[in-house]
Amino acid sequence: MPPVTHTTLAKLARRSLLTSTPILAHHFERRGLSVNHTQAVTLGIIGAYVVIIALLWNLPYVRWVLWPFKMLVIAFHEFGHAITACCTGGRVESISLDPHEGGVTHMRGGKQFLTLPAGYLGSSIFGALLTFCGFNIVASKVASIVLGVCFLLTLWWARKDWLTIVTILLSVGMLVAFWFIEHGEALRFYVLFIGVMSSLYSVWDICDDLILRKVNSSDASVFAKRYGGSSQCWGLIWSLISLAFMVCGILAGLAAFKQDFDQQEKDSEGFIPTVRMLLKV
Q1: Which helix (H) or strand (E) holds 95?
Q2: Tens of pLDDT along the chain (281 residues)?
Q3: How far apart are the C-alpha atoms of 58 and 198, rounded to whole Å?
Q4: Is residue 174 classed exposed, middle or buried when 0-12, 13-18 and 19+ CB atoms within 10 A define those classes?
Q5: Which residue ranges does UniProt annotate as crossing the membrane (predicted)?
Q6: How many structural domains are present in the chain?
Q7: Which of 54, 56, 160, 259 has a 20 to 30 A CA-CA distance from 208?
Q8: Cβ neighbours for 155, distance < 8 A, ≥ 6 positions apart
Q9: Is 58 helix (H, G, I), strand (E, B) or coil?
Q10: Structural domain includes residue 187
């Protein structure tokens, strides 16, 4: 069996997406889940995002284009650890990100059999919800508000880490700026992009750490040492769960949001209108 390389993975991702998008759309129609023009465009954009992210994730040098978004998704990952620790009786001392695309959450207590997978699975759940909201402008506005709250919590835990602070402040700034572009339509595609990347982060990161680079300090390796099994096995399970979350987010978006672009813009004008919209009135 030939060795698996970054280029091979990128080619496989691109080929599978190009062939599966029309098949999925036809499958949805056969199952009674109709896809209108606006939803078809959104599905195409999701497919394009996956291909673009897969290529940029693996190609040397140009991969730095994704660096700010990787930092953002890693912040989701660490927030998943932190919020699970708090919900299971633990205490979060700090969250930090570093320039080498890593992050760490320092915490005490909590149920580690829940807090360890909560990083990858938490970012996957965030990604699925953001992908779902990315089908609609108003839903994307709601999602951006929730994201802002999560960012503020992460900012509180990371009050001594400058990289985390800068990453979060820039992300909040982009969320606010996109509210003012085309009645929030740019915000929808931004939320959708973050959702897709966050959904697939665990898949590609686990592949990088456990299959290609064989890093031994991942959440999956720590989980395997404490609770049995192999890190590759747990990584594969978490990756499959992440993909399942993403598919659920897409299906839920198709089922819930049938509005076309014009109707979405009209609905957006009535939900926390921007200054531009108020001036038009």
Answers
A1: strand 91-98
A2: 334 343 443 444 445 444 444 544 554 555 456 789 999 999 999 999 999 988 887 787 777 778 778 777 888 888 899 999 999 999 988 887 765 656 788 888 889 889 999 988 888 999 999 999 999 999 999 999 888 887 777 777 666 667 777 877 887 888 888 888 767 788 999 999 999 999 888 777 777 666 665 555 678 888 888 998 888 888 888 888 989 999 999 999 999 999 998 899 888 888 877 654 444 44
A3: 16
A4: middle
A5: 40-59, 125-155, 162-181, 187-204, 235-257
A6: 1
A7: 160
A8: 164, 165, 168, 169
A9: helix
A10: yes
For residue 228, give the DSSP letter. S
In a domain, 136, yes or no: yes
Per the document, the length of the chain is 281
Does 106 map to a domain?
yes
Range of the domain at 73: 36-264
* Calpha distance 156→149 (Å, rounded): 11
Is 10 a member of any domain?
no
Buried b (16+ CB within 10 A) or exposed e, 94-121: bbbbeeeeebebebeebebeebbbbbbb
Residue 234: HSE in the Cβ half-sphere, 13 Å Cα cutoff: 21
For the record, the structure tokens of 68 come out as 């700010």
Distances, alpha carbon 208 to alpha carbons 169, 235, 278, in Å = 28, 11, 48
Q: How far is CA 191 from the centre of its chain?
A: 9
The pair of three-digit structure tokens given for residue 2, joined into one six-digit string: 């030939």
Phi, psi of 104 (to 5 degrees): -150, 140
Candidates 99, 94, 135; CA nearest to 261 is 135
- Cα 35 to chain centroid distance, Å, stands at 23
- 124 contact partners, CB below 8 Å, separation of at least 6: 198, 199, 201, 202, 238, 241, 242, 245, 246
Element (H, E) at 108: strand 102-108
